[in-house]
Amino acid sequence: MDLDQWIAKVKEGQHLLEDELQLLCEYVKEILIEESNVQPVNSPVTVCGDIHGQFHDLMKLFQTGGHVPETNYIFMGDFVDRGYNSLEVFTILLLLKARYPANITLLRGNHESRQLTQVYGFYDECQRKYGNANAWRYCTDVFDYLTLSAIIDGTVLCVHGGLSPDVRTIDQIRVIDRNCEIPHEGPFCDLMWSDPEDIETWAVSPRGAGWLFGSRVTSEFNHINNLDLVCRAHQLVQEGLKYMFQDKGLVTVWSAPNYCYRCGNVASILSFNENMTSNISNLSVGYLSTLENYTPKASCWDGRAKPLKYQIRHPILSNVGQRYPIIPWFLTITHPRKANVLVATPTILHLATPGQNPSLGPLQSVDNRF
């Protein structure tokens, strides 16, 4: 395998050949099988939330946070589904894992599942791009080898979803049999599906899997396991990163900007520097432009209108067939733990040749910050 050549190929938007993808998946499985259910990771490291097939945003994530191997990464699952480029996202992450196994850690998310990927897009994408389901089978086989969690310097636990009433200690995560499809209940399921909520203990989750868990549960879990923080993904947060509970013992990180190309949310990545002992010492947040390099299938009705500006989440975007650059603006805010946070928010789009859609009426100029 020429991994460097394959990495360059995928970064240019090309697909591996089917037999190359099969070889890559088999190679990475041999690496993943050696990893623990609670994979130890040393700082410095950057933690990332859901990507959901937004490949061009993943490329900008690396531009913002640094490229592997100069920057170490933990990706907390949900690489696939919903976005248009799940195959490219998962392929490049597998290639980076194969090339730099010590510099990138891939956790399983609830969408790393055969059942969900047949519903939310990854299966259909593989069928469309390869003409058969073999690529989907190779990738979903890798899902069963992905680790369940990572622990940074023994003090920060990273997991996709959240806590489980069946897991009081980290050692109980270590003994879970992960080499299977995600079950519908139990600790494995809960780690993938649970969500924090403004409650004290436990409540039934509206998702139909996992649990809602509260501040007391989180505080007790952190105390028992000598943790400073639980870092998780799984939930869209408009601000990209959100601390929960009064003691800020849990944080949600979301790394898919303008989720599903319409939500208008900020994306974030969370970085811990090499001096971290029991506290977060550095946090950097970058907004990643979603619609750059993405051209919708529909075309303009009329190219005579003057260029106009629109919010990134304006519904007219789905009707405009232009390749439009992102015009970002920047805001500096203060993080609760006194670290500086930089947020670059592309709220404005410049559409080169917008026109008039008879069904929607004339396009309106919008320049609102949200």
UniProtKB/TrEMBL annotation:
Catalytic function, reaction form: O-phospho-L-seryl-[protein] + H2O = L-seryl-[protein] + phosphate; O-phospho-L-threonyl-[protein] + H2O = L-threonyl-[protein] + phosphate
Stretch forming the signal peptide: none
Domain Serine/threonine specific protein phosphatases: 107-112
InterPro entries documented for this protein: Calcineurin-like_PHP, Metallo-depent_PP-like, PPA2-like, Ser/Thr-sp_prot-phosphatase
GO MF annotation: an example: protein serine/threonine phosphatase activity
SUPFAM superfamilies xrefs: Metallo-dependent phosphatases
Hydrolase as UniProt keyword: yes
PROSITE patterns given in the database record: SER_THR_PHOSPHATASE
Membership in a protein family: Belongs to the PPP phosphatase family.
Protein known as: Serine/threonine-protein phosphatase
